[in-house]
Amino acid sequence: MVDLDLEKFFDRVNHDILMARVARKVKDKRVLKLIRAYLKAGVMVNGICITSEEGTPQGGPLSPLLANIILDDLDKELERRGHKFVRYADDCNIYVKSQRAGLRVMESVKRFVEGRLKLKVHREKSAVDRPWRRKFLGFSFTWERGPRIRLAPKTIKRFKDRIRQITRRNWSIELKQRIELLNTYLKGWIGYFRLIDTRSTLEALDEWIRRRLRMCLLRQWRKPRTRRRNLVALGIPAYWASLISGSRKGYWRLANTPQVNKALGLKYWKDQGLTSLVERYLELRSAL
Q1: d(C-alpha 120, C-alpha 137), whole Å
Q2: Which of 99, 161, 214, 224 is most buried, taking the most CB atoms under 10 A from its CB?
Q3: What are the φ/ψ torsions at residue 7 (nearest 5 degrees)?
Q4: CA–CA separation, 3 vs 214, rounded Å?
């Protein structure tokens, strides 16, 4: 796979080349003038307006469309050469049969992008490598002969970092409110990543999220007497509850003990309304 990354793409788009591409399709001079003014509007830095001689406003509503317009020439060139590729804005992957072919394609595409489009290829982030060692929009592949779509390692790390923020044990909010925040994030996240084929990863993440929540509850039940009373109320034998309430283990370790796992198991979190990544994934997959 040729993983192509354009260096500071939105900051370096040549206005004249971009407007020439737009003018191929848009004949209304008023629209062209408006787009040119949008590109020249500048940005505010510490309250000072800085004019823009090149680039498009990153994060602006029109920028992704303009990116597709100027990179349409790259798409057409890759199609003309017969390459299999996928591109989203300035991220592009080209699939080839060998390392040697990948290196050859990388050099020729670099010449095209830097010579014809006046853009710069980020040499450190671009690479020719096996697909399962690279990522694209948060996705990657498994290494088997029949590859499956999976989550990229960095995607899982970002996901866990966000869940850790919501399930901080020193954040004193009600469990209901915490679950609402989790559900909002989990539904949007799995809606985007529903294309993956590795269900086992989602099962592991579900288990990890429930353990984080059990840790938060144990933190709220700080006093041994409160902890014992709540565990007994959840159906745990008094002797087991006493062992947990008198333990000196940390909250994270206690959250994975058989007693706490049984008291705060799948049924408990389902009754609390917690979204399951696996269940949501299956619902979305059946609708595809």
Answers
A1: 20
A2: 214
A3: -75, 125
A4: 41
| Locus of tokens 């990179």 | 71
Q: CA separation (Å) from 71 to 39, 68, 94, 137, 215?
A: 17, 5, 14, 17, 49
Strand order of the β-sheet with 84-88 is 84-88, 91-95, 2-5, 127-128
CA 36 to chain centre: 32
Looking at every residue in the chain, the average pLDDT score rounds to 89
Q: Is 10 left (phi over 0), alpha (psi -120 to 50) or beta?
A: alpha
| Contact partners, residue 155, CB within 8 Å, separation at least 6 | 135, 138, 139, 193
The reported pTM is 0.82
What single-letter DSSP state applies at residue 133? G
The pLDDT assigned to 54 comes to 67
Note the pLDDT of residue 53. Answer: 65
- For CA atoms 161, 166, 168, 170, give the dihedral sign: positive
Amino acid at 5: D
Residue whose entry in the numeric block shows the structure tokens 């088997």: 144
Q: For residue 226, give the 3-state DSSP assignment.
A: helix
Among candidate residues 182, 258, 267, the one with its CA nearest the CA of residue 216: 182
pLDDT band per the 50, 70, 90 thresholds, residue 67: confident
Name every residue whose Cβ is closer than 8 Å to that of residue 288 and which is 6 or more positions away in sequence: 194
Contact 135, 142 (CB under 8 A): no
d(C-alpha 64, C-alpha 58), whole Å: 9
Q: How far apart are CA 62 and CA 26, in angstroms?
A: 15
Local confidence band at 7 (pLDDT 50, 70, 90 cut-offs): confident
Sign of CA dihedral 281, 282, 287, 288: positive
